[in-house]
Amino acid sequence: MLCEECGKNQATVSITVTAGGEMRTRRLCPECMKKMESSLANGDIQSFLTSVLSVLSSAKKPREESLCCSNCGLPYAEFERTGRVGCAQCYRDFSEQLKPLLQRIHGRTQHAGRHPSTFVPDPKDSLALKISELRQKMDEAVATENFEDAAKYRDELRMLTDGKEAAKE
To answer: HSE-up of 86 (CA within 13 Å, CB side)?
Structure first.
C-alpha cells in the first residue's frame, strides 16, 4: 500500500485516530512519519494538526460540512484543511469539534499560558482553576496507582472546597 501523505513510497506505519466512536487509520511511509514527528518536536503544531485532521476529515459528519463561524464565516472544512481558526469566535462555534482535539494535543481544553504583566486574576477564578488542577492530578495519581499522592491531593481538595463553601455562607 502506498503512503497516504506523499502517494509515492510504501506505507509501513499506521496511525489510528478514534473520533466520535469511529476509528480511522492512516498509513504513512517512514519519511512522512519522520516529517510529522519532527514538526511536532519542533513545535510546528499546525502541520501536525493538519495531518491529524486529514484523518478525521474522512469521518466528517454532514453537519460539520456546513458548519461556519458566526463571526468571520470560516467554514469548519477550511479549518480542517489549514489547521488555523479565523477569530476567537471560531473556538466557540467549533468547540464541540475542537475540545477533543485540544485535549489530546495540549492535555487540557482551557488556556493556562502566560498573562500580560498588568493582568490581575479574579480570586474566584484562580480557586476554581486550582480545584480543577488538583482534581486532574488526583485522577492521574489514581490512574498510575500512586495512592499516597492521590490522598494528598484529595485532602487539599477538601480543604479548598470546604473553604469555598464557608466563604459562600
So the answer is: 18
